[in-house]
Write a structure and sequence with these properties.
Chain lengths: 259, 252
């Protein structure tokens, strides 16, 4: 791979331009918030499309995340000789703090973020966004604001749902596969449960949702060159949101969970 | 001397390293019907999009009704855009809305009329383009010609002063294209509007326009009446209207 100064320079310019574009769109989004009341119906529609329709996928992912967390924790406990009564605690902490918010966000970035980029990208290349502008309708208010708000509000709800399903998945594996009673598992979970962990997980989810919506809309809006451009926008939106989710997750770990 | 209704002066626009418009000057009077012709990729659509500031010029000005579009703030721009109606090349209908919802969207967003008033106005416009029977259909259920007619109804729903057409007959069979041409002529007279159409379909240009402007190599190559266009000795225009491969214009 050629990594000459010209290539590095071009990529640097592209990075700065993307970050600048995201900030500009963020500014326009903030300005469009004053029109929330008149966009109520579009916002509710997006809450349904983005949130409710993601429930089955998040449920499937969460049940297996909880199950594998319980299995792997039990495997490690046996290896270091830790008591299995702590299994509920380990699974609960891992799910609520990290696994549910991050994995749900990555899955939603793939489903919703890509969907937004593809939909808006298609609207861009078929001149539907130009048509909105031509009719005097602000495309940021009509298309971007409802989608970002829906991602922002639905992601914490999805993570709350994922927390519940993943812990249930962990419980089932603990009872059936590891021979820990449900009472022992749930006691361990309850004793270690901290409301602040749960709330921090939801705050992270909100930020991740915001990233997914903003990046999906940005990439869709700047799509060009037909089907190839829409494909590129879709892929790029998933890549950028996934990277940003993991970077922000680390920042949250350092800021919210002090050692 | 009366100033032009739409005055394009010294318009330049580049995309990246590629200059598309290299200094275009056109003055359009109120009530005129102009066809801008030229090869594919010569910047006709780019020029059209500058008339409602869907694109910003690198240099030059576009003045509409004595107001320079570049200096309008957002609210003023919205107000000016609502005095225009535009038919896009692919009609650009919103896939998720029915024909009636597409046509009425702008009125609904302005929130000046009740739902029943919007419905009546939309049906009136759909009747004008003879598409009222397809009001409940989605764009994917329409033929190419029906899509264009729905796009036309949407373009005229705000009772505009200016109608812009981006390749109105592209992709249509000759019969349907002629129906659209007839409709453009009919709307121009009935609504008493100024019309600007960009096209490379000479049959359409001769039928709908009372003035033809040819863009070539980023500049205005020719500006005259349809009769002058037919008999011009300009070799570039002559080659283009006859559609000949040999001549000063090279394939892009």
């Amino acid at each position: 791979m050629d990594l000459g100064p010209a290539v590095i320079g071009r990529r640097g310019i592209r990075f700065v331009s993307t970050m600048g574009g995201l900030c500009l769109l963020l500014g326009k989004f903030v300005l469009s918030l004053k029109h929330i009341p008149r966009s109520r119906s579009v916002i509710f529609q997006q809450l349904y499309v983005i949130g409710v329709r993601s429930l089955p996928l998040v449920a499937v992912i969460s049940i297996f995340v909880g199950a594998v967390a319980a299995w792997q924790a039990a495997y490690q406990f046996k290896f270091i000789g830790a008591p299995l009564r702590l299994l509920g605690q380990a699974v609960g902490k891992a799910v609520v703090i990290e696994l549910a918010p991050v994995l749900s966000a990555l899955v939603v970035a793939g489903r919703v973020g890509a969907g937004i980029a593809a939909e808006l990208g298609t609207m861009r290349v078929t001149e539907q966004i130009d048509a909105l502008d031509a009719m005097g309708i602000n495309p940021v208010r009509y298309l971007v604001m409802p989608r970002i708000l829906a991602c922002l509000f639905m992601m914490p709800l999805l993570v709350m749902f994922a927390d519940f399903i993943a812990v249930a998945g962990g419980l089932v594996v603990s009872v059936i596969g590891v021979d820990v009673s449900s009472e022992t598992f749930l006691n361990g979970f309850k004793n270690s449960f901290k409301l602040s962990d749960f709330i921090n997980g939801l705050i992270k989810a909100g930020v991740f949702g915001f990233i997914i919506g903003l990046v999906g809309c940005y990439e869709g809006f700047k799509a060009e060159q037909g089907a190839q451009g829409v494909g590129r926008a879709t892929t790029t939106s998933v890549v950028i949101s996934s990277v940003l989710i993991l970077v922000f997750n680390f920042i949250f770990a350092v800021v919210l969970f002090r050692i | 001397m009366q100033s032009a209704y739409i005055h394009i002066q010294g318009l330049r626009k580049s995309f990246g390293e590629h200059p598309i418009l290299k200094g275009v000057d056109i003055a359009i009077n109120k009530g005129e019907s102009i066809a801008v012709i030229g090869q594919s990729g010569c910047g006709k659509s780019v020029l059209l999009k500058h008339l409602i500031r869907l694109l910003e010029p690198d240099e030059g000005t576009v003045v509409f009704d004595n107001r320079d579009l570049v200096w309008l703030n957002t609210a003023e721009l919205v107000e000016v855009r609502r005095r225009f109606g535009m038919l896009f090349q692919s009609a650009a209908l919103f896939d998720s809305l029915t024909v009636e919802e597409n046509v009425g969207l702008s009125l609904k967003e302005q929130r000046l009329l009740s739902d029943s008033e919007i419905h009546d106005k939309v049906m009136d416009k759909l009747n004008m383009v003879r598409l009222s029977s397809a009001a409940d259909k989605y764009p994917e259920e329409l033929s190419g010609g029906m899509k264009k007619r729905a796009g036309l109804a949407r373009a005229i729903v705000n009772d505009p002063d200016v109608l812009l057409y981006d390749e109105p007959t592209t992709g249509l069979d000759p019969i349907t294209a002629d129906v659209i041409n007839d409709m453009i002529v009919e709307l121009h007279k009935k609504l008493n509007v100024t019309s600007v159409a960009v096209t490379h379909d000479m049959r359409s240009a001769f039928k709908i326009a009372d003035r033809i402007v040819m863009l070539h190599d980023g500049r205005v190559e020719f500006d005259g009446s349809p009769e002058e266009t037919r008999i011009t000795s300009n070799p570039i225009v002559a080659q283009f209207i006859r559609g000949e491969a040999q001549g000063p214009i090279q394939e892009r």
